[in-house]
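User: Can you recover a sequence for this backbone? Please restate the input before giving your answer.

Assistant: Of course. Working from this structure:
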């Protein structure tokens, strides 16, 4: 709330108080319950530029404004004795120190380009290594067995090392035209991050990644394609460039770079990095469920005998999904 808005609200309230429409309410509370330097606080508030947004909690912290020794302006925290009575037998320290203990929040923000996304890889790996074995406040050991990465398409593609766009956008590695082929999808087994690392490093062009080329298999020349395929024991005799490219595509199935968490050192396995059970979801759950529900609702009118109900349902579907039903 800005100072101008605050003034307007207070003026309206004062006017209603003077007219007897509402009960007079002291805005300052009981000063004997507060501990602060009033002059310092008011001087600081007067220096705030007109129209500024004021966070009163931050101001309370800045000027050490407390109520009965509790920090800041919050009388709901338990005392040490109250906590001990409420939770007998539970180990406790100073509640006040727990309340005032600073918390560290790490918010990673970077552009969505492939070159900028690895900015926080080392931090993520460090966090994962610290999470291998964790104890709760009651001493119960928690062991991470599986970690699942969930996100939209581009985020999952980068996490898995899959290409963006093209004919292999899905991290399942199935050619785009075969997505509706149920037999093809059933026969294709999902691969782990370690499988992806081994598949990528099976040739020689992956070393371009170590030299800063984020997508080492993109835009390869004919000679580079031959070198890469022969390093993978593929016969390239008399093959033209499109045929060479198709051969490599059939091997990589859209893999363009290492999985995000393995980009720092491609010689290290997933087990060495502590991520053998890290998985990347092959779908966008929220989007997929939404589309399934929409398809079911769209199908409903054709299974209803009452023409009136069928008509109303079609109108509802057209309104909600902007989808015209014949």
């Amino acid at each position: 709330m800005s100072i101008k808005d605050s003034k307007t609200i207070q003026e309206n309230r004062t006017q209603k108080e003077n007219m007897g429409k509402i009960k007079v309410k002291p805005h300052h509370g009981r000063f004997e319950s507060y501990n602060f330097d009033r002059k310092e606080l008011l001087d600081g508030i007067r220096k705030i530029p007109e129209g500024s947004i004021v966070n009163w909690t931050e101001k309370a912290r800045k000027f050490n404004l407390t109520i009965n020794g509790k920090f800041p302006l919050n009388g709901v925290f338990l005392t040490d004795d109250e906590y001990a009575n409420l939770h007998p037998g539970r180990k406790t320290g100073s509640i006040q120190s727990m309340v005032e203990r600073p918390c560290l929040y790490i918010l990673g923000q970077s552009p969505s380009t492939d070159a900028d996304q690895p900015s926080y890889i080392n931090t993520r790996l460090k966090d994962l290594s610290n999470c291998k074995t964790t104890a709760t406040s009651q001493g119960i050991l928690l062991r991470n067995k599986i970690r699942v990465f969930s996100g939209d398409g581009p985020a999952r593609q980068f996490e898995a090392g899959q290409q963006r766009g093209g004919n292999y956008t899905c991290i399942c590695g199935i050619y785009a035209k075969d997505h509706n082929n149920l037999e093809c999808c059933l026969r294709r087994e999902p691969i782990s991050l370690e499988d992806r690392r081994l598949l990528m490093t099976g040739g020689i062009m992956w070393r371009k990644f170590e030299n800063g080329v984020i997508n080492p298999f993109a835009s390869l020349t004919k000679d580079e394609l031959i070198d890469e395929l022969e390093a993978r024991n593929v016969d390239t005799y008399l093959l033209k460039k499109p045929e060479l490219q198709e051969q490599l595509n059939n091997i990589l199935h859209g893999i363009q770079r290492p999985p995000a968490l393995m980009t720092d050192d491609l010689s290290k396995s997933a087990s060495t990095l502590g991520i053998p059970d890290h998985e990347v979801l092959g779908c966008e759950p929220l989007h997929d469920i939404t589309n399934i529900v929409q398809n079911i609702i769209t199908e409903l009118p054709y299974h209803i005998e009452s023409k009136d109900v069928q008509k109303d349902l079609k109108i509802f579907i057209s309104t909600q999904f902007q989808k015209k039903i014949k």
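That completes the design. Strands lie at 34-35, 66-67, 133-135, 141-143, 147-149, 278-280.
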